[in-house]
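user: Kindly work through both lines:
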Amino acid sequence: MSNQLETLIVERSDGVVTVTMNRPARKNAANGTMWRELMTTFEEVAADRNDRVMVLTGAGDAFCSGADLGDPSDVAGRPGDPYLVQMRSLADLALRLHRIPKPTIAKVGGVAAGAGMSMALGCDLVVASDTARFSQIFSKRGLSVDFGASWLLPRFIGMHRAKELAFFADIIDAREAAEFGLVNRVVPADELDGFVDGWARRLAEGPTLALSMTKTMLNNSYNISMDQALEEESRSQAMNFNTADTAEAISAFVQKREPHFEGR
């Protein structure tokens, strides 16, 4: 399927799959085709054992400027579906990104606005160039927030700052985004590719199953008690001790060498 995509470029190398939104003339604004292709691609990445980390980025000088409202009949889902049906399809995509059982990195150069900003925040890590710009642009389009922003923003930056970004829809630069706690790192634009590649390769070489369980536990942490969290940690650790990766890590520790993880 990936070879037939119209709006995405999907590249794989040594366990790293890079998904590039490829509508640069529209600043990678997502039309219905892109949303549908992202869903298919995210499902492929989630299921493919050889994909150990995903990098999500945009072509040209933008990450994603949000939904392409030029054709309101084809915002998401299937063209012509009622808006509630289309938006529920977009919600399914946000959940699919959230549930990919391996690390995901948003590589943000240029603008990330509206659902594009929400999609970046939906990744596990966000690395931005010093030229990146972020906006919850929805209110300026007469819309409320979507793609999970109402859940993500308060958890990342607190309720009052979340309301500030959502109500005013101001554009903030990468430095402000870092101060707010929206991004992990801000790097010079000419160093963005190299930095993200370094992080992605470190994760791809890591203990795949352990990282997957860690991601799931952290994602669920706001919804459970500490007792429940400790029980989940105990179960996950018990599973780890039965994996080849943990056995390899212990052997490498004893032998004073770097471990070689195979994701099993």
